[in-house]
Design a protein that fits this description.
The protein is mostly helical and 615 residues long. Helix content is 72%, strand content 0%. The chain starts with a helix and ends with a helix.
């Protein structure tokens, strides 16, 4: 590649990406994993070695994406909870991904299109990478802060692929260095998002495409590298399965049987193609209507189109390598999301982040082909000008849609109101719109959306839990109890719903039932300070001050840097026992133990001052 043109192309990619994503910097955290992964995540509060080791230790019932968590910890050190900093990091990672896409496309074009000029390879890579940078299907991966795993995974995935393509051209010593870098980047990719385990399959597809009958020779020669790649994939595939099983990420077969679930995968595959190539109304949630009969017209159509695409791609290997590689790259990188092993989400923009590479590759090649056309009836520059005009029209359209979609992600309300408007039958959209209204204190509107969510998906235990909370607020205790008990029956291991049921009983003055639930949870989690704190408050409300102080002290011992137990003990001594000195003692102790709780500290100081005046 001409270095000067390479630097110019890189500068244009950076400039375009900054322009179209600049309006995302004002976006806030959204109520869709952002609170749990960032705002409430204590793991990102420290960068000491012990905490980093904790981040890189797999745990059951928790996702294992340590590079993402580590990146949040770095952001927190710089920005605390200023969302603009997190958006800047996401965009920087996306820019790096787009740059690696450009260089990977160039290398791929030179390897799969022999006898073509260098200028043609550069044009194809440039066209394709600009379309990749501007494609609106990437907004979710870039603008949603919880999707940091996508841009991390994308950068390391394409970095590994570029090193691999580069290493195929080098001599033995340099080749070994580059293949080592491939393994390092691949490892970072799977530590960012485990779905990168498909990377060895991508390399196999490339070898089958570029060498046809001689790809087995490469496997024999570099068997150690291939075994290491597969070994990394198997390790992280095992971790992924264990984590998903522990967290309930693997769902029952859709349609009730393996065959029906497999049929749904055909619908998902075709809808992903539609989403990438033909959709203009992008959303945070989608609905797919699946007809669980192989003999209905819709099923025959999606199965027929799928097999036709497979057949054409296999046939194309004899004619042109690029379609074969592009199709199977798309299929393999999309494979983890096709719900062959059923997961919670059928269709999402972020799932197309890596697969869209092949689509942009074909578009780049198409525009380059059109640019190079020549005909006697037209002037030499006619097709060049026409191809550039059409390309700019498409790029402008993508850029406009991307900037508009960035606005959709501005906050939780704009996000889920948009999703509900576009896909009113989406369980997820209705459920999270209900949560938005809950947070706003608009419980009647929250109930409306949550009721719709459980109507669409009756086994949605989270929406039933939220609906129970809302009904209790609306003074509908009978309905609240039914929803909370149903949520527990659907997900017996979910302790949050049990805590909410305990709170419900406490507010209904059924103290014994509330106490039984909390004591049961404490036997399961004897080191959970929050449970002792809740039990202490319950005893306080029951008038059992001594028991309340005892439980609050246990909470204080387990979490000495939390100010609330000190405050509550002080309150009991002052308001109930009329022991002002002991009350002041615990207030002061709370101030000393939790100096970072500035608002509470200031409040307690004023209370101590008032007590001094009273004295």
């Amino acid at each position: 590649m001409n270095p000067r043109r390479g630097w110019l192309a890189t500068a244009i990619i950076i400039f375009l990406t900054l322009i179209i994503y600049f309006n995302s910097f004002k976006n806030d955290f959204v109520n869709w994993d952002d609170p749990g992964l960032i705002i409430k995540n204590k793991k990102i509060r420290s960068l000491d070695w012990q905490n980093i080791l904790e981040i890189f230790t797999p745990k059951k019932s928790s996702t294992f994406q340590p590079i993402r968590v580590l990146s949040y910890a770095i952001d927190y050190r710089i920005w605390k909870f200023n969302s603009i900093g997190y958006h800047i990091t996401n965009l920087l990672l996306y820019i790096l991904t787009c740059i690696m896409v450009f260089f990977s496309l160039y290398m791929l074009s030179t390897h799969l299109r022999k006898g073509i000029s260098g200028a043609s390879h550069q044009r194809a890579a440039f066209f394709g990478s600009l379309l990749f940078a501007a494609h609106p299907v990437h907004v979710e991966a870039v603008t949603w802060l919880s999707a940091r795993k996508e841009v991390l995974h994308g950068f390391f995935f394409f970095l590994a692929f570029y090193f691999y393509l580069k290493g195929r051209e080098e001599e033995t010593r340099r080749k070994i260095i580059l293949l080592s870098l491939v393994l390092s980047a691949f490892l970072l990719a799977v530590l960012s998002k485990p779905s990168a385990v498909v990377f060895p399959a991508v390399l196999l597809i490339y070898e089958m495409t570029s060498k046809k009958d001689r790809w087995i020779d490469f496997v024999k020669r570099y068997w150690f590298f291939i075994l290491l790649s597969i070994f990394i994939s198997l390790i992280f595939l095992t971790i992924l399965i264990e984590v998903m099983l522990g967290a309930g990420g693997i769902k029952p077969y859709r349609g009730g049987t393996f065959f029906n679930n497999l049929l749904a995968s055909f619908y998902i595959f075709i809808n992903n193609i539609k989403l990438l190539a033909f959709t203009v109304n992008y959303s945070a949630a989608y609905t797919i209507r699946v007809f669980y009969s192989v003999f209905c017209l819709q099923s025959l159509l999606v199965i027929g189109i799928t097999f036709l695409l497979f057949g054409l791609s296999i046939w194309s290997l004899k004619k042109t390598k690029v379609f074969f590689f592009s199709f199977f790259f798309f299929f393999v990188t999309l494979l983890p999301y096709l719900n062959i092993v059923p997961i919670s989400t059928l269709l999402a923009d972020r799932y197309l982040f890596i697969p869209s590479f092949s689509f942009c590759f074909l578009l780049g090649l198409g525009f380059d082909k059109f640019y190079s056309l020549a005909a006697k009836r037209f002037s030499d520059g006619f097709f060049k000008l026409l191809s550039v005009v059409i390309f700019l029209f498409l790029l402008g359209g993508y850029s406009f849609l991307t900037m508009q979609q960035n606005k959709v992600w501005e906050n939780s309300y704009t996000l889920w109101s948009d999703a509900v408007e576009k896909y009113p039958e989406s369980n997820e959209a209705n459920a999270l719109m209900g949560v938005v209204y809950m947070d706003l204190g608009m419980d009647e509107q929250a109930a409306e959306y949550l009721e719709k969510a459980v109507q669409i998906l009756p086994i949605d235990y989270e929406s039933r839990n939220n609906l129970g909370i809302v009904y209790e607020r609306l003074n509908m205790p009978e309905k609240a109890l039914i929803e909370l008990l149903t949520a527990i029956a659907l997900k017996p291991e979910n302790d949050l719903t049990k805590i909410n049921l305990s709170v419900f009983y406490q507010r209904q003055r059924e103290y014994k039932k509330s106490e039984e639930i909390l004591k049961h949870l404490i036997t399961k989690h004897p080191k959970n300070a929050s449970l002792y704190f809740r039990l202490g408050l319950l005893y306080k409300e029951m008038g059992n001050d001594e028991a309340g102080i005892l439980e609050l002290k246990r909470a204080m011992e387990l979490a000495p840097d939390i100010i609330n137990p000190y405050e509550e003990i002080g309150n009991i001594y002052i308001s109930r026992m009329k022991n002002i000195e002991m009350g002041k003692y615990y207030y002061i102790k709370g101030i000393e133990s939790a100096p970072k709780a500035k608002l509470k500290v200031e409040e307690l100081r004023w209370m101590i001052q008032d007590l001094e005046c009273y004295k």
